[in-house]
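Lesson 9: reading folded outputs for more than one chain in a single document. The general rule is that every protein is listed as its sequence immediately followed by its structure tokens, and records are never interleaved. Here is the first one.
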Amino acid sequence: MMRRMELCVVIGLLAAAIPAQAQQDDNKKQRPDANAAAAQAAPKKPATDDPNYVIGPQDVLDISVWKEPELTRAVPVRPDGKISMPLLNDVQAAGRTPLQLAADITTGLKKFVTDPQVTVIVTTINSQRVFILGEVNRAGAYPLLPNMTVLQALSSAGGFTIYANLKKIYILRTEDGKQVKHPFNYKDVLAGKAPDQNAKPGDTIVVP
């Protein structure tokens, strides 16, 4: 009689444990989906807040179409200046501001979607760069952020070597199809004796 009662208790405990385990398994299955949805819903951080920023090749864009998740995606701008969008195929992005591109996509989607609401955010800037050469710790190409000055661009290179001539720095800039050399006295700018200037796309800053 005791053995039968013990067996009934064990069976009862097992029966209670199975649904609980099943619930845990269900939760584990649902959790990745929930995390993915939360990640998708998280707002993207723009690389620039300048509404007049002009998109260029190799920039990365986050395109969001409200209530149309299959059309919402991150896309790189191809070297030919275009992006690939569902329903629209190739769309010209380079040379357009985010607002202009959003308007273009909205117009194209009206043939397929009722009242599309499109947002375009530049999440990575790769199209505009400056080149820093010479006596710096990390020579190379660096992203040119909106309103970045020459002084700020130089700080990206990790400082100067002990051989750097800070009074003889110069900028090579293409103007009207010709390369022009602009002097930049780092010490005078740092001391406030000379004005800093904005770097421009394609600038080569040379530290002799």
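And here is the second record, again sequence then tokens.
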Amino acid sequence: MAPSPISSRDLTRTTLGVLFIAALIVATAWIVFPFLSALLWAATIVISTWPVLLALQASLWGKRALATTVMTLLLLLTLVVPLAISVGEIVGNMDRIVAWGSSLKTVSLPGPPHWVASIPIQGPKLAAAWEKLASEGPDGLAVRAAPYVGGFLQWIAGKLGGIGGMILQFLVTVLVCAILYTNGEAAARAVRRFAHRLAGPHGEKAAVLAANSVRGVAMGVVVTAIVQAIVATIGLAIASVPGSFLLGAVTLILCLAQLGPALIVVPAVIWKFHTGPTMTAGILLVFALLACTIDNVLRPILIRKGADMSLILILTGVIGGMISLGVVGIFVGPVILVVTQVLLKEWVASQPLADSAASAGSRDA
């Protein structure tokens, strides 16, 4: 039987409606894409610090506007204060930096220590390469170091060139955070209603677990970074490394960026073994090893405490998210995995019930 004209019109209208909705989704994603990173960071920050906002609101006579203002100012200070300190340090030590760059042309590398040759597997080869480089004098060292120094300067120039975009992204993030702080409950209800509309009660449960996982990952990352920075700073101070507290602050930033404290403590250990007493260098080495390895134990425990997730799921989400999406992937990765796990688990669990009900109905018939 041929389809009726009304059915044809309905099919055409449905097809055009679907295409129109798809076009709207693509256009919206295209417009929002430049701000996607800022939106993700804002959502992560607000979810992680929401208990702090509520506690602050309770101490400020229940005024949400005052609490939002204080939280927004604190977020701005996290940019303004480190940036001002960094610029001040660079400007204040500009003469020293220029002198250090000029002195590289006259630096001569001393011969390798005796213990270098005793390093397993690569020790003799490393000692021979070190000895050859030391025998070439300052000119040979300058020629070999020139490509690396040039690459490092280009990297610094690229980072400085992109600092304007970074500041703009941060300001957009802070603005979105202020909006979410003000209307957080309404935004949470909207997300839960959308999840419920999309996947029923299971979708709403997945949304709640996603928020808990973001809060747990944030607690694990921040607290672990603080502990690593404290351990590294104590070791640097005991070893009397110059500027130990400034190096500790840099270590905190590196740990928050998931680069780890090794970039600071490893060169300090090498320098201390080369110039200082062996006992002091050994103590610094112990603190360095503790700072570099404690995150493997502490971070999963804290994340699991904040979110009811399996350890394998946590590690996979954090590591895979960081490799795929960068620093923001540390938070997004576990969220994607926990939502997928919840939906799949509920779907698998509900399937046998439907099958058993169908089989029972067939038997009754």
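What the second record shows: The chain is about 85% helix and 0% strand.
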